[in-house]
Amino acid sequence: MTRSLLWRGLLAGLVGAFIAVTFALLFAEPQIDAAIALEARHVMPGMAAEPELVSRATQKTWGLFTAMGLYGTALGGLFAILFAALHGRVSRLSPRALSLLLALAAFVVVVLVPAIKYPPTPPAVGLHETVRLRTAAYFAMLALSVLAAVAAGWTARRAHKLVGVDRLLIAAGVFVGVVAIGQLLLPVIDEVPADFPASLLWQFRLASIGTQAVFWLATADLFGRAAERELARPA
Amino acid sequence: MTTRTATHPGPFAAAAPAARPIPLADIAPWAVFAFVVALILLYFVSTEQGAFALFDGMYVHEYVHDGRHLLGFPCH
Fold this sequence. Notes:
The complex is a heterodimer of chains A (235) and B (76).
Chain A: H1 2-27, H2 29-42, H3 56-86, H4 95-117, H5 131-158, H6 164-185, H7 198-232
Chain B: H1 4-7, H2 24-46, H3 59-63, H4 65-70
Transmembrane segments (chain B): 27-45
Pfam family, one (chain B): CbtB
Protein name (chain B): Probable cobalt transporter subunit (CbtB)
């Protein structure tokens, strides 16, 4: 059973990612192009521009499809495993409803919460020298968010004597508390150039988070439908 | 009156009685497999030729460039 769920998760993630790419092509690529145009203007006249290793045309088509496809496949597989472990254990939700709720939780834990501390940045934002610090800080934030979610789930399980709404409130409180303290302790990173347009930054970040939302919604619905059919089959 | 919640289970209630959980022993090996696959794929999308580099040059970085920015990973 796990094997067929995992297979469907990997596939749903891949297809979900491709659906998200169509959104990204429409809403995010114009912002990335605008940011790169700004970046190019900052190169001193007379200074030789860096040779283009991969053309923009490749980056925004094959490159984007590949990156999103790999990301979607990876997350889709993990999503399927989480679904398999939670199905029938934590609630009486139907497979489709569990899938959608799980995706909402994943979107908050994996995308929104890390983005509150370290929001996605367009090209021309971010110093090359600090990429190691920024990578470490970003993954620490991601790990912290996942740990906070696990702690919240554990708390909800322990508080089984309370009514449903109170358990939800306590779990949410644990999650927000752990995340807030962690975000306070993690280093501040602010490398937006002073002359970078605020509106472009906002548009890029909105498109980036929108792409993720499309990915999670599409993946969860595709996976939920497939899982419902799979689980209804007599074993 | 006391069984209101049972007769009005809400929009997210299951139509069927509680499903039988999949045994964890059945999930474990696939979980390890999915985790390892995800780790490798995500490393190349998020970090290769950024903070770390297994291969020389910047080709991987430049190829996944747009995805890396969009997915919120630190890029340059």
